[in-house]
Amino acid sequence: MNYFEYREGEMYAEDAKISDIAESVGTPFYLYSSASLAYQYNQFKDAFGDLDLLLCYAVKANTNQAVIKTLADLGAGADVVSEGEMRRALTAGVPPTKIVYSGVAKTVREMTFALKQGIYQFNVESEPELYQLSEVAENLGKTADITFRVNPDVDAKTHAKISTGKSENKFGVPWKATRELCALAAKLPGINLVGLDLHIGSQITELEPFEAAFTRITSLVETLREDGNDISRVDLGGGLGIPYEGDDFPPLPKEYAEMVRRVMSHLNCQIIIEPGRFLVGNAGILVSQVVYVKKGEEREFLIIDAAMNDLVRPSMYDAYHGIVPLKESDADSVLYDVVGPVCETGDTFATNRLITPMKSGEYLAIRSVGAYGAVMSSTYNTRPLIPEVLVKNDEFAVVRPRPSYDDIIGLDQLAPWLSE
Description:
This protein has 420 residues and is an alpha/beta fold. It folds into 2 domains: 4-31 and 281-409, Lyase, Ornithine Decarboxylase, Chain A, domain 1 (Beta Barrel); 103-273, Alanine racemase (TIM Barrel, Alpha-Beta Barrel). The chain contains 12 helices and 21 strands. Strands 4, 14, 15, 16, 17, 18, 19, 20 and 21 form a 9-stranded mixed β-sheet that branches.
């Protein structure tokens, strides 16, 4: 479902005219649709209808409090990878009994905080982490429910930088060592083994890698139960992709859920899933204004006021994002390189992209940026972080304001010998 569409030649977000928001807020800014967040969440929830499901939003995809709360109010839990993300989730109203803690380098401080909050489970990723968590839990007089994150050595067939389930990746415990580690966990104080966890990567557009990994985990659960372990949860991670380009659509949640049901419903485990990008990716756009149209010797450039510090994915991952003017046009499209103002050649959003002709001062939208957009932004070149705006029906609200230059520069402190 597309909640960013043209009406009488103007792009709207739900029932709000985006150019009006641009005039009010100033560009560039991120814009999120509440209806899109709800639609994506309900797709997953409805697909798993008859199974015992805990859907934990992967907070790292978009940490804005308004986004987390919108999903929490629908019933979502949270998958977090830091104390900061857990604090965000708790502040947004996610109960600790719906929070799972992932990540390869959980510190004593983070473990302590999570245990004191009554977290639902830790996804343990190594033997040293297991020993450390046991010590922290015992010292606090608490018991940590854990799953082992298993590295199933499955190729997710996605970008190398977001593939996490191969044996050479830093994530998880080797699947062949799982039985030994579970036996160890059973002997340690403060530890209660409740299940297995995996996450093989992000932006996965085929079901085959998921099925291969889930089949391996299912077999492990059966073996561990034969060993006497009470395995009651299977955390499948996230990773289901979204369409960024053309008509090549990834599998739908319904198809994904049918595969999960076929592979492991006989286990009668609680199923935990941790979608991030799927929930928020297409719920957001980046609105920017054309500063100049520059004719180069070999090509024409649209120079816009958004930059790679605002959206790093094209520069970091060579990622494709649709780019469209806010005003619809019947004119023939022309080839542009869409670039930003940062002093880096890598500050490029698109090369040789067909877009209807644009002029200085006009607005455009960069699509599918609700995930790994604002959350990965920076103040490089001393450019302020850009606002985030949430729309619901015909209303909009700034849910993260643009800081002033004084705010940014004021974070620095002079050394004593420089202030004398």
